[in-house]
Write a structure and sequence with these properties.
The chain is α+β, with helices and mostly antiparallel strands. It contains four helices and 21 strands. A hairpin with a 4-residue loop joins strand 13 and strand 14.
Length: 379
């Protein structure tokens, strides 16, 4: 009986060895589930880090885009305002005169002024219109010698220097009012008679702004002796405004009487402007206002334009990052009509809260004071 005992003890040992071998050959279901959970957690952490990094990159990139668009918009407006009024303000006597013209049966009306601010209602964006002469020749104002009747077709003038056929001209009376306005016409020929220059403005294809026989846009009294003629060459008439988050330009082409609209820079959501006035005549700006002058004396006081625009990043943030409309700090040195007190300074609210999801965007404010140089130089 004792000879069979070793053989009986060997069987459980082999089974134990086999059991240990099975455990060394693979993973249990529990181990697989734990490994899978750890991998998923690691992937989740990595994805979250990448999402945060990508969000920060987009915020930085969109902020840079807003900065570029804002700076370029401000530069464009600054350049236009600086050059405004060229050829129109050589004599300040015509500032504020209503200019009338007619082309192909369509009537046009402008204000003879270098810069015109159209105030937006209730904080809406303003628009800025600039006028200037587009001639490549400098021409001083020409003085009318003698009376030009309403139905006349030529002006007798003291000089025709710098003038050419097809130039667009503005006739300015010595004193303008509701019955004596300014008029636009084309030069069709230049001549001389009796020692005076002659500026002819007949109707036809060479004078599209001139009127046919029996039709006129000149005042009933015509233009008396001492009236002035301003040479535009081709009128520069440009209006800048904000629409649908874009700075837009509407350019009037006086050669064909049509307007064209272009989108310049995206991400611009507000534009506000003030006239800088010298009300004391000492050459220094002493007040700012958004109210457009209504007479010649008021326009003579306009020395500069102060403007601000708001650019917005293109990144819609997950959370609210803006909690109030941006403020335009105007300082305390010069009074600003309509500004509110903010500490020791004056501020104007630049409204963006009317935009959809406005709190989830970032904004930048750009401002500048632009001297209207041709008003200072009488150029």
């Amino acid at each position: 009986m004792n000879r069979h005992l070793p053989c009986q003890r060997a069987v459980p040992r082999r089974r134990a060895l086999a059991s240990r071998g099975d455990r060394r050959a693979g993973f249990t279901l529990l181990e697989l589930m734990i490994g899978l959970a750890i991998g998923m957690m690691a992937a989740l952490v990595i994805a979250n880090v990448l999402l945060v990094a990508e969000g920060q990159r987009r915020t930085v990139t969109s902020g840079a885009d807003a900065q570029v668009n804002g700076a370029l918009s401000l530069y464009t407006l600054q350049r236009e305002v600086q050059a405004a009024g060229y050829g129109l303000v050589s004599s300040l006597d015509g500032l504020g005169c209503q200019v009338r013209g007619r082309r192909n049966g369509t009537d046009f009306t402008w204000t003879l002024a270098p810069v015109l601010i159209t105030d937006g209602a209730s904080g809406a964006p303003d628009s800025i219109t600039v006028l200037a002469s587009g001639t490549d020749r400098y021409a001083t104002p020409v003085r009318v010698m003698g009376i030009h009747p309403q139905t006349g077709t030529e002006f007798s003038v003291n000089s025709t220097m710098g003038l050419a056929a097809a130039d667009l001209m503005i006739a300015v009376p010595p004193a303008f009012d509701a019955d004596n306005w300014c008029s636009v016409f084309n030069i069709t020929a230049i001549g001389s008679a009796g020692g005076l220059g002659q500026i002819v403005h007949e109707s036809g294809t060479s004078g599209p702004w001139n009127q046919d026989t029996g039709e006129t846009i000149f005042p009933d009294a015509g233009y008396p002796d001492g009236s002035l003629l301003l040479n535009l060459g081709q009128l520069i008439h440009r209006t800048y405004s904000v629409s649908s988050g874009t700075l837009q330009l509407v350019s009037f082409d006086s050669s064909n009487g049509t307007s064209a609209t272009r989108e310049l820079f995206s991400g611009v959501v507000n534009l506000q402007a003030f006239y800088g006035l010298d009300t004391t005549g000492d050459g220094a700006i002493d007040s700012y206002t958004a109210t457009t002058p209504t007479d010649n004396a008021g326009w003579r006081q306009v020395m500069a334009v102060r403007l601000a625009l708001v650019s917005r990043s293109g990144q819609l943030e997950k959370e609210e990052v803006t909690h109030a409309d941006p403020q335009w700090d105007l300082g305390s040195a010069v009074p600003v009509a309509g500004a509110a007190t903010c500490g020791s300074s004056q501020c104007v609210t630049l409204k963006v809260s009317h935009l959809a999801d406005w709190k989830r965007y970032r904004y930048r404010v750009y401002d500048v004071i632009v001297p209207v140089r041709n008003m200072l130089w009488h150029a």
